[in-house]
């Protein structure tokens, strides 16, 4: 709702992050502000997990080496793909909601 205008036609001011975070009427979208940062944090955690899992399995020996070489990269790829798809779906849903809201405000 921050990109829309109020009833007088003047543009509304976007609230600060913490004001929007505790907006009990849910008039501001916080998700779009934190999506990129949260995505990077999740990717970093997945990377750390992947390195730890890779070396843990590598030092186990036997069939674990094969799983470390094939399973860990494949699992990380699938995890990153699913996380990216969920973030894109969430952002797209919010974009649809914003566009619908602006159409409602125009009528």
TrEMBL record:
Keywords carried by this UniProt record: Membrane, Transmembrane, Transmembrane helix
Keyword Transmembrane listed: yes
Residue stretches spanning the membrane: 34-57, 63-83
One Pfam family hit: DUF4282
Domain of life, per lineage: Bacteria
Protein name: DUF4282-like protein
Organism the protein comes from: Pontimonas salivibrio
